[in-house]
Amino acid sequence: xxxxxxxxxxxxxxxxxxxxxxxxxxxxxxxxxxxxxxxxxxxxxxxxxxxxxxxxxxxxxxxxxxxxxxxxxxxxxxxxxxxxxxxxxxxxxxxxxxxxxxxxxxxxxxxxxxxxxxxxxxxxxxxxxxxxxxxxxxxxxxxxxxxxxxxxxxxxxxxxxxxxxxxxxxxxxxxxxxxxxxxxxxxxxxxxxxxxxxxxxxxxxxxxxxxxxxxxxxxxxxxxxxxx
Length: 228
Fold this sequence. Notes:
Blueprint: E1 8-16, E2 25-33, H1 38-46, H2 63-74, E3 79-86, H3 93-110, E4 113-119, H4 123-138, E5 147-151, H5 158-175, E6 190-192, E7 216-221
Parallel strand pairs: 1-4, 4-5
Antiparallel strand pairs: 1-2, 2-3, 3-7, 6-7
């Protein structure tokens, strides 16, 4: 019996967007890293902490620091995937998160990711994440080789990258900032749109058009703009 050929590890974080400027929106980001780059990438990101900081957290950083963080992330050889759910008014945040997570796990599976590492939200929530993956496996939406782990935010530096991606995309969405600066990592980044119901045996269809009362997703790969 041969072992799995999968080696990539993804680090994920999520964010709700600005309530007034970008309501009913949920963002889930993943940064995908090859095993050989884990320690170098962690060293670079950890080096961004100020004296006394246990972790980077976007909301605590000044604008100059945020620009430094994003520029530094752009130089690390990671692949980034961001799922944005544009939901309906009154939809519970946990439902938005589940829907984003379903889409994200589908995409990570197609990238042949071995492990998706989430920031722990406590044992009950972590169990729900694992139960969701089990349900997706049972429905053959993802391969059985994909697994989930959870880490405390202050114990895994690469979770801070996903936090920054979520926050920067939310800022761009809320402010209406156009993608006029160089993209994150991929100089010719692209954007895909995906259906709300991904299937393992088919390529997800186009996202529902803006203005349709149904929910829609946007999927971004390596296309997040940063300020010069």
